[in-house]
Amino acid sequence: MPKITVVAKLTAKPEAVEQVKNEMLKMIAPTRCEHGCLEYHLHQDVQAPAVFFFYENWADMAALDRHLGSPHYRQYAEAVGGLLAEKLVHKLLEMTA
Questions:
Q1: Which of 65, 63, 91, 83 shows the shortest CA–CA distance to 23?
Q2: Pairing mode, if any, of strands 51-58 and 4-11?
Q3: Could you tell me the CA-to-CA distances from 64 to 17, 31, 51 in Å, in that order?
Q4: What ranges do the domains of the chain cover?
Q5: Nearest residue to 49 (alpha-carbon basis) of 90, 84, 14, 85
C-alpha cells in the first residue's frame, strides 16, 4: 500500500490562537506514538500567526483512519471545533517517490 501524506490547514479565531495552538501541541506526542505514524509536524504561519498546518506521513490509509478514530484526536477535534475561524482544509496525498 502507498504511504499517505496529509497537509491540514487550520485557522484559529484571533482571540483563540494560543488556545488552539495548545490543543494542537497536545496531539503531537500521542500521535507520534501511533502505529503507522511516520511523521507528524505542526507549523505556524510566520506572517499569519492564526494559521497552522499539520504535515503528516502515514504508512497507509488504515493507519490514518485509526488516528482519526483515536480518543486523543476526537478530544482535540471537539476542543478546537468552535475556536476555528474557517473550516478545516486538508489534502490527502499519495506518496509517489
A1: 83
A2: antiparallel
A3: 26, 10, 23
A4: 4-94
A5: 14
pLDDT value of position 2 = 81
pLDDT digits (tens, 9 = 90+) for 27-86: 999 999 999 999 999 999 999 999 999 999 999 999 999 999 999 999 999 999 999 999
pTM summary value: 0.92
CATH value of 4-94 in 3.30.70.100, 3.40.50.360, 1.10.10.970, 1.20.1510.10? 3.30.70.100
Q: What is the DSSP string of 43-94?
A: EE-SS-TTEEEEEEEESSHHHHHHHHTSHHHHHHHHHHGGGBSS--EEEEEE
User: What size, in residues, is the chain?
Assistant: 97
Asked whether 20 and 86 are in contact (CB, 8 A), the reply is no
Place of cell 511516520: 38
Indicate the burial class of 97 (C-beta count within 10 angstroms; 0-12, 13-18, 19 or more): exposed
